[in-house]
Design brief:
Elements (H helix, E strand, L loop, with lengths): L1 H14 L2 H52 L1
Helix pairs in contact: 1-2
Length: 70
Amino acid sequence: MSILAFVLQKVLVLVANENIAFYITLGIMVISSFCVVFKMDEILKAISRRQLEKFNQRLKNKAEADRSDV
């Protein structure tokens, strides 16, 4: 991400002065960092939900196996 910020700032310097390019680049990097964090949160929720569903299925299968043994 830092390489992307460096390249983006160098490109923005061509159309704006250095301070403005720096602040634009900083803003874009902060916003993209928040997006990555929120996306990771959604991915982790989906993984947790899947793990919980698998665990519940294993419990259900074990309970059915225990009943069939009796």
